[in-house]
Specification:
alpha+beta, Jelly Rolls, 8-stranded mixed β-sheet, two-stranded antiparallel ribbon, about 15% strand
């Protein structure tokens, strides 16, 4: 088959997928429409379809079962990393739901090496740059259509119309961050890369149901090295009784002896939220340095070295903070996305189907 024939065949395949996707959408099967539109974009980029997928993934959440999932939580699993004082670590090729559950329930987190390869890291840094530039242009009043694939402000469905999205945007903008769901291209590439790394299948097995992320807890970051940092558990900002897993991916070598800030944390399990607003805490929601020091007597604080493309996976009870020293001067690119079990999805979040 010559190149022209291959292109014609690919175009035919895309046309058939788009027709099937539209038919699925018209009959109300939004989950299948997401699958079909996604397959079409993988064959041929289409900014309009990428934009459409953001809203469809949001509305499709209402069509997946909220009665599934595991009967009890957290998972009861053996400690596969017994004896280590360092955070449990695996390469992405060896990642399984059992290892994830074991690491989080016994050690608080799992360090996963190589979630993104070098070419994916480079590609996503460019995606972040273009998305953040478009985000700033939108804030400045630019309504150009050529920015749409890089920044189209997410519109919640009627069921979530009371949620404040604009306030979060204005909070993120000065921090070199934006909602991933506000960039159709970034959201598509993120989920595509994560699926290629088997994260969707691993998280589905971990939760016992297909995961969903949240607009308000999914961000692109190119953060300037300024300001302070506070110990915290993300569960302090979310509803109780949830089932979560954060996938934090650095796109910059950081931590250790690097000049880019990484993360520091206590590699141990906390079964509940700890006291906040005391022991010298700066904010009511933060954990004071004095209390963190008390915990560190038994479990010393760890500040691992991360290579670009590495990830740290943890849940809403994990105690951590940005590892920031005065001599650090390299801004860090990063991706942070919280995934939740639909059966225990936090009521204050805006769901996007993985």
């Amino acid at each position: 088959m010559d190149m022209t024939s291959e292109l014609v065949t690919a175009d035919d395949d895309v046309s058939q997928l788009l027709a099937s996707a539209r038919a699925a959408e018209e009959r109300g099967d939004l989950v299948d429409a997401v699958r079909l539109y996604t397959s079409a974009v993988k064959l041929r980029r289409d900014p309009a379809v990428e934009r459409r997928l953001v809203g469809l993934r949001h509305r499709a959440f209402g069509q997946i079962s909220s009665d599934g999932g595991k009967a009890s939580w957290p998972p009861v699993v053996p400690d596969l990393f017994a004896g280590t004082s360092e955070p449990p670590e695996v390469h992405v090729d060896d990642l399984t739901a059992e290892k994830l559950a074991s690491a989080i329930t016994h050690h608080g987190c799992l360090l996963v090496r190589g979630v993104l390869d070098n070419s994916q890291v480079d590609q996503f840094r460019q995606v972040i740059d273009r998305s953040l530039a478009a985000f700033q242009a939108r804030i400045d009043g630019d309504t150009s259509e050529d920015l749409d694939v890089w920044c189209s402000f997410f519109q919640p469905s009627d069921d979530y119309s009371a949620y404040d999205v604009a306030g979060g945007r204005h909070f993120l903008a000065p921090q070199g961050s934006m909602y991933t769901g506000d960039s159709p291209r970034a959201l598509f590439d993120l989920l595509d890369f994560f699926e290629a790394a088997s994260l969707r299948s691993v998280l589905t097995e971990y939760f016992g149901e297909r995961p969903a992320l949240s607009l308000k807890k999914g961000t692109l970051r190119h953060v300037p090295v300024t300001g302070g940092t506070s110990w915290h558990q993300d569960g302090a900002f979310m509803a109780p009784g949830i089932r979560s897993c954060n996938v934090w991916v650095t796109l910059t070598d950081c931590g250790g002896d690097s000049t880019a800030p990484g993360l520091e944390f206590l590699p141990r399990r906390f079964d509940q939220l700890v006291e906040t607003g005391s022991h010298g805490a700066i904010f009511e929601w933060s954990v004071g340095d004095g209390l963190a020091d008390e915990f560190a007597r038994d479990t010393p604080v760890i500040r691992p070295a991360f290579a670009a493309g590495d990830a740290l996976l943890f849940d809403d009870l994990f105690l951590h903070r940005t590892a920031l020293d005065p001599g650090m001067d390299t801004p860090r690119y990063a991706l942070e996305h919280w995934f939740f079990a639909p059966s225990h999805y936090p009521s204050e979040q805006l769901p996007i189907l993985f």
